[in-house]
Amino acid sequence: MQEGSQPRHLVGLEHVYARGGGRLDFGAFDPVFGLSDRRLEGLPGIRGLGLRGMIEAQVAILRTLLPDGPAMDVNDITEEVHGDALRVVARNRGILSGLRGRYRLAVVSNFTGNLAVCLHELALADLFEVVTDSAVLGAAKPDTRPFTETLAALDVPAGRAWMVGDNLQADIRPAQLLGMRTVWLVPTGRQDPVESPPTARIESLAQLPGILESAADPVRTERQPCTA
Asked: Which of these, 226, 208, 213, lies nearest to 104 by C-alpha position?
């Protein structure tokens, strides 16, 4: 996800477009990508699509929107983006599995109604106790409702939960408003905001267990909820 409230579950697609010699720079590509997100949300049958099918659908939509779209090979781009996603999942599955043994995990995502399907396809569904998909809920981040609904499903107060996200405006800010502790997943070089900095920041998910461990309350030994 990028900063802002639009779904960015296929953010790797813009990097593949650039690597393939796409004519638009990021500033020009971003609004077109946002439009493709919105069209993807309204695509008939979207709620039954797994990750690969969803990527293929969005690439096909982008092919009709981009000035150099007709030159795009839908299958080749789909395979590259899907392969990148699978590598990220493989890299992080063990980390999530380890966290699941100590914490109650949930997902709060601006998605297109098929998040649960994608998680099952990726063999990640069993790691999360609660899955909140904005399209299913009818409210998207930065609205606080996805967070409050998730906390209610977990039956825990905001002060006992962490939000882990890469989107300052859509992930970190609303969680802070509710009193949750926050971990900002952000590349090196990005400065913390002057006002209301996150509780912690990490450059990769591999650093998250150490952050949570160092902040653990030794008096309370029950598993804390953690959302991403």
From this structure: 226
**Are residues 180 and 113 both part of a single domain?**
yes
Q: CA-CA distance, 98 to 89, in Å (whole number)?
A: 14
Look-up: residue for tokens 């209610």? 152
Q: Are 62 and 32 contacting, i.e. CB atoms less than 8 angstroms apart? A: yes
Which pair of structure tokens corresponds to residue 121? 């396809």
Q: Are 193 and 173 in contact (CB under 8 A)?
A: no
Residues 139 and 182 in one domain: yes
Residue 94 CA to residue 205 CA, distance in Å, equals 11
Same domain, 68 and 98: no
Rounded Cα distance between 221 and 228, Å, is 21
pTM, rounded to two decimals: 0.86
One domain, residues 219 and 147 = yes
What tens digit of pLDDT does each residue of 32-84 get?
998 998 999 999 999 999 999 999 999 999 999 999 999 999 999 999 999 99
Q: How far is CA 223 from CA 41, 104, 142, 184, in A?
A: 35, 6, 26, 21
Contacts of 141 (CB under 8 A, 6+ apart): 5, 108, 110, 134, 147, 167, 170, 171, 174
Q: Judge contact between 199 and 181, C-beta under 8 A.
A: yes
